[in-house]
Amino acid sequence: MRVLVVEDEQLLADAIARGLRRESMAVDVAYEGVEAGERIGVNEYDVIVLDRDLPGVSGDELCRQVVGQGGATRVLMLTAAAEVADRVAGLSLGADDYLGKPFAFAELVARVRALARRAVPAVPPVLERAGICLDPARREVARDGRPVALSPKEFAVLEVLMRAGGAAVSAEQLLEKAWDENADPFTNVVRVTVMTLRRRLGEPPVILTVPGAGYRIG
Predict the structure, then answer these.
(1) Full-prediction pTM beyond 0.70?
(2) For 22-44, how does the pLDDT look when each residue is reduced to its tens digit (9 = 90+)?
(3) Which of 78, 121, 126, 214 is the most exposed place for a label (fewest CB within 10 A)?
């Protein structure tokens, strides 16, 4: 999945981003509201982790922007305010979930994954297709009951393909969902990653190439 972290405390923002990347998520970071608004206007995110108390363009205004665009992007709002009234105000803006600071990182990860599952159409927490079982929360993959060890990027690509439910996913869509904004769209990184992923999953090949359309789980 692809996540945008919007947090003006740079050390905290970078720590969140590093942790989510270890969970095989593609993560972009913005340290202030204007920068975040530009990214939201260009990229399609599954979840936005949004600090409510931003300088300049506030988290409240960014939340309104995301909600106004429609789509399946979910918003997890962060704030140091602990009052019930503050949580209610944040949710009334259209945020999907609310997490007070300080927070346990494991809870943040669980909430991000839960929000991603609420995208349309909804998908189950454990994905199964063609003998492959992928558990995003535990970051475990098995094929026909055999555990498969994957790198974070291979795991991310497989998760995107599994969530497509057998539909073809283009290389551009994989680049959008499994890599962050620093990825070079003119490289063959997607093809190479799919090739190594096929090898790790073993025979017979389960990732099929769809000419002119991309890849799908057969």
Answers:
(1) no
(2) 998 999 999 999 999 999 988 88
(3) 121
Residue indicated by tokens 């995110």? 45
Q: At what angle do helices 171-178 and 152-163 cross, to 10 degrees?
A: 120
Distance of CA 157 to the CA centre of its chain: 11
Q: What tokens were used for 44?
A: 């399609």
Tokens standing for residue 212:
């002119």
Residues 6+ apart with CB under 8 A from 215: 161, 168, 169, 171, 174, 194, 207, 208, 209
**What single-letter amino acid sits at 26?**
A
| pLDDT tens per residue, range 150-198 | 999 999 999 999 999 899 999 999 998 898 877 777 778 999 999 999 9
* Phi, psi dihedrals of residue 128, rounded to the nearest 5°: -135, 135
Residues 6+ apart with CB under 8 A from 196: 151, 154
Query: What does the CA dihedral 205, 206, 211, 213 come to, rounded to 10 degrees?
Result: -150
- Cα 19 to Cα 23, 94, 146, 177, 194, distances in angstroms: 7, 26, 27, 17, 24
